[in-house]
Amino acid sequence: MNKRNFLKSVGLGSLAIMQPSIPTLSASAKTPSQPAKKARHRVWINPDEKDTVADLQQRYAAYKKAGIGDIFFEADSEKHFRAAKENGIMAHRWIWTMNRGEKELLASHPEWYAKNRKGESCATHPPYVQYYRWLCPSKPEVVNYLKEQAEAVLSKDYVDGLHLDYVRYCDVVLPVNLWTNYGIDQSKELPEYDFCYCETCREKYKEKKGIDPLEMEHPDQSPSWRRFRYERITNVVTNLAQVAKQHKKPITAAVFPTPDIAKRIVRQDWTNWPLDSVNPMIYHGFYKEDVNWIGEAVAEGVNGLHGKFPLYAGLYLPDFKGNMDDLEKGIRLALQNGAAGVSLFGSVNTTVLDTLKKASV
């Protein structure tokens, strides 16, 4: 089960009360006086080995015609990758990064896993769901392991780039409408969901600041302890970006929807990562927001990036409930507020492709 399916299955909802809103155009937003730049879109796919080559040729030709230039594949399927490439679409390998629950890894290196403020390890006490097994980003062995994984992916000639998912800490706070699902009140950061307090992280922080985070009265309120953890994830991304650079292939990431939400909920400071582009998952239905929020979230991300690299707005197709007018509106809002394109997750059928073409004009 991937992250998006987990969020759907538990009914992820609001971080804020839904209010009617008016999209605010960013400084980079297109106006009638500016020439329109052709959008380049993306899709997330879990490839099905049952698909025939003929089916894939037809499907990916239609994708290309609709303006899709990149596909992120969640599994390694040479057949799918090559079919995409033959149709002029870049084929990226989409990998789980910090959330790694492989049985072999758990058995051989339980010491690599993150610990919460209570001292419980993800190896033995996964938070929320059984597959939430988060590695500690401070351990050199973990960074080296992830670099080896990236090297194995990027060394394949049919892989055009590396796409990072779960490149963060565990969710320290869930949206409020999920609290009843787990019988918890997260109006403050609870120690069992606050990671990583392993010995390595505590020692490294103490070297810098002279205090063990566990000796603080309220470590969850410490700006420097929070920044330390932002930097730990940024360091992982930096190392993986170096591997991608050596192979002369792009590195991208799926991240939480806005810089503020990403830092607050999962310690993810993506505006400061050395990426080639970023795909914030602006899944408005998950946050109980209306379609206008897509434009607002894009504007916040674009403004936070200051032109460092392009932003592609991640849209969750089931959130639109088959309403193609809303999907068209969401795509247009993303483009008007500075997105280089959109990245779609869900069933990309002919109607969706037609809407994508219509909205991109």
UniProtKB/TrEMBL annotation:
Superkingdom of origin: Bacteria
UniProt-listed InterPro entries: Divisome_Glycosyl_Hydrolase, GH, GHL10
Record Gene3D superfamilies: Glycosidases (3.20.20.80)
Swiss-Prot/TrEMBL keywords: Hydrolase, Signal
Sample GO molecular function, one term: hydrolase activity
Pfam families in the cross-refs: GHL10
Domain spans labelled Glycosyl hydrolase-like: 84-285
Protein name: Glycosyl hydrolase-like 10
